Amino acid sequence: MTFEPGELTPDRSARHFYGADLRRHRMNADFSLAALAGEVPCSKSQLARIETAESIPPPGLSEEFDRVFDTDGHFTRLYGLVSREIHPEQYRRHMEIESRARTIREYACLLVPGMLQTRDYVHALFRARWPKDSEEDVRQKVDARLSRQRLLLTNNPPDHSVILDEAVLRRAIGGSAVMRAQLSALIDSVNTPTTVVQVLPFNHGEHALLGGTLRLLTLKDGTTFAYEESIASGTLMEDRERVNERLDAYDLLRSHALPPSETAAFIRSVMEALPE
């Protein structure tokens, strides 16, 4: 079978420019992917993915490209841009990775994660976020958010692990009735064959993930991606060092969170304390 190189789109982002420039230098040097793989610590398939911006180069590889092509630090400097770039296509890529993940681990500091939100909870959030939108526009946004939950209802759903900061439970989104229904739904998800929910109480104090929202998505081959999200943007991390830092922080936090049985009791106590 003849290898067909993937299409290049260098104008989309620094990541895409990096891949296109790598192919240009490779072709100018009359290197095949296999030949370049013999010169640097990277497989032929991964090099192909880097050229088409499906993967970012791991730390240290850019220095190897500069050595092979004698480019005087060009790829090393370009990697500095690539590794810090918030890509316009990151959210779409995040969703694509989510659809293939076998394990999803989440830490939420302020809001119930999307995969566990009730319809009324989502509606309250989106109505506050887009107060001038028509009801139909809000409904479409709600439907799009809830459609992601189908992933947990497939014949082969991912394992889903969630750590909720106590603050998630204390803010009554949508009022008492909406929040009571949301908390009840969380109790149902605390310990199922595929989902585990744990609460991190306020009395734990400070920790490495405080103030952030983190998702860790692990594919069938063991590759793990980290995704951090703010109000209107998200950052997808793929390089091993940064992902491992988040994995370590998550694992440490999970060891301090309440076990599922105590989590269910804790959520129930918060629900019962809500005003009528």
From TrEMBL:
Q: What name does the UniProt record give this protein? A: Helix-turn-helix transcriptional regulator
DUF5753 domain ranges (all copies): 91-268
Q: Which organism is it from?
A: Streptomyces johnsoniae
Q: Which residues cross the membrane?
A: none
Q: Which SUPFAM superfamilies match?
A: lambda repressor-like DNA-binding domains
